[in-house]
Design brief:
239 residues, DUF5683 domain-containing protein, two-stranded antiparallel sheet, signal
Length: 239
């Protein structure tokens, strides 16, 4: 009888163990382990407020600015080249209008300006050579007299005293410096003239733009004799 009870208990214990193991195996089969890690998905935001670029619309280009820049560039490289460029612009405009009479005068005017530019450079060069030559002569004489008091090296300068020699040396040195400054001034005038002429070529001037100056009287409250009118000029603009 005792053996029968032990056998029954052993059978129940074995049955429980078997059921527990089978349940765990079944749970393992139903929930497989995911060993593959998936990469996170990046969310791309679309900015709907961004304006679309209109590629069909062309950007406005000011022809006067373009011509002015070209004229400056050419004048900086070679003085007078900008004037020739402006002359070509006017010639092309005259050809487009069918006008042939203005070519001669336009060419004469342009060559006259270029001639003045190079005439100025030539005169300045001659002046610089003369001032530099005389400066060296008086400088040498001043140095000789400083080292040899009472003596004169250049017989052509005997009529000049020591003070006059020093003054002449300073004057010619200053003249030489002024000539160098004048070189830059003429060069700058050449560039400015080319730029202004190029810009004015595209400046709109027609019959609808005019002005008129007429004499008139204005009221003057500060008067002592009862006359309130003061003479003035009246400017009238019409667009």
């Amino acid at each position: 009888m005792l053996k029968a009870k032990r056998l029954i208990l052993f059978s129940l214990f074995t049955f429980c163990i078997v059921n527990l193991v089978s349940a765990q195996v079944k749970d393992t089969l139903l929930k497989p382990v995911d060993t593959i890690k998936t990469a996170p998905i990046r969310v791309v935001r679309i900015d709907s407020s961004k304006k679309k670029v209109d590629t069909l619309k062309q950007k406005y280009v000011n022809p006067g600015k373009v011509a002015g820049r070209k004229a400056i560039f050419k004048s900086l490289i070679i003085p007078g080249w900008g004037q020739l460029y402006n002359n070509q612009l006017l010639v092309d405009e005259l050809n487009a209008k069918g006008e042939k009479t203005g070519h001669f005068w336009q060419k004469t005017y342009t060559l006259g300006k270029i001639g003045l530019i190079y005439t100025g450079f030539t005169l300045l060069t001659l002046s610089y050579i003369d001032s530099d030559k005389n400066y060296k002569i008086f400088l040498k004489e001043a140095q000789f007299r400083a080292q040899n008091p009472g003596k004169k090296e250049n017989l052509a300068l005997e009529r000049y005293g020591d003070t006059n020699v020093l003054d002449a040396q300073a004057i010619y040195k200053r003249n030489r410096q002024i000539v160098i400054f004048s070189y830059f001034a003429v060069y700058a005038v050449n560039v400015v003239d080319a730029y202004v002429a190029a810009r004015l070529h595209y400046f709109n001037i027609d019959d609808t733009i005019s002005f008129k100056i007429t004499p008139t009287l204005i009221n003057n409250p500060n008067t002592m004799y009862g006359f309130n009118g003061s003479p003035a000029l009246k400017l009238s603009l019409r667009f």
